Amino acid sequence: MAVLFFTVSTATAQNKNNEKENIEIVITKTTTKQEIDKLTADLKNKGVTLTIAKLKYNKEGQIDKIKGKIDFNDNHSGTFEDTENFEKLVITRNYNKDAKKTFSIVVY
Questions:
Q1: Pick from 17, 50, 80, 100: CA 20 to 30 A from residue 66's CA?
Q2: What is the pLDDT of residue 12?
Q3: Which parts of 1-108 fold into alpha helices (H)?
Q4: Per-residue confidence of the chain (108 residues) as pLDDT tens digits?
Q5: Pair 66, 98: CB distance under 8 Å
Q6: How many CB atoms lie within 10 A of CB 34?
Q7: Domain spans of the chain, in order of start
Q8: Which residues of 42-62 are buried (b: 16+ CB within 10 A; e: fewer)?
Q9: Phi, psi angle pair for 103, to nearest 5°
Q10: Predicted pLDDT of residue 18
Q11: Own/partner long-range contacts of 6-13 (Cβ < 8 Å, ≥24 apart)
């Protein structure tokens, strides 16, 4: 079962308290190419650019290698790469002004 979880809002979208909503993107080794393509398109519609430069699947249909970058188009951007034993990619963007961490990319 593929696990693809993302909560996305545009950088200009605001909640009822006039604050931007947080974004969390999780891609696991079982995420399909079609799911990544949909995620990329959905993010683009929200003003976020996700670019996957390298995506390789093994014989079991699991992601083996991944490389790319993300740009939230608000001075928060970064790159990611895993070429061995990829398990999970987690990208978060926290718009809370009191947050200790406003942006992170973690590859497991």
A1: 100
A2: 38
A3: 33-45
A4: 333 343 333 333 455 555 678 999 999 999 999 999 999 999 999 899 999 999 999 999 999 999 999 999 999 999 999 998 899 999 999 999 899 999 999 999
A5: no
A6: 10
A7: 4-107
A8: ebeebbbebebeeeeeeeeee
A9: -155, 135
A10: 55
A11: 6/39, 6/42, 6/43, 8/42, 8/43, 8/46, 8/48, 9/46, 10/46, 10/47, 10/48, 11/46, 11/47, 11/48, 11/72, 11/73, 11/74, 12/47, 13/46
Whole-number Cα distances in Å, 94 to 23, 25, 46: 7, 12, 15
Q: Six-digit token pair at 52?
A: 């996957």
Q: Which tokens go with 60?
A: 């079991």
Q: Cα separation of 25 and 98, whole Å?
A: 21
Query: In angstroms, what is the C-alpha Rg of the chain?
Result: 14
Number of residues that this document lists for the chain = 108
